[in-house]
Amino acid sequence: MEDLEITCPVCGEVSVALAEDLETLEVGDVLECEACGAFLEVVSLDPLELEVSEGGLEGFFVDCPRCGYTLEVSEEEAGQEVECPECGFRFVPDWSEVEEVEEDEE
Fold it and tell me: Which residues form a coiled coil (predicted)?
């Protein structure tokens, strides 16, 4: 088995999974994206398919309006200004979409 490039479905960053790590991987295992910290569950091994694991997410992901970097924002930060770790730009994320989803679930 060879090393494999994996694209995070949340932030789009590409990382490399080493062949020796892929050999021990099983369906149901959870990987963490090194770039954005998203938890990704293995749903298929051949081909390798990942989906965002809801249990691991504590907030939601938002793109920086200046540089496009994807960062995770926790529920505790709702309505507060956050700083992009990539470019330092400060902004208040839009929570309107998240609130709509929560209302639909009730």
Answer: none
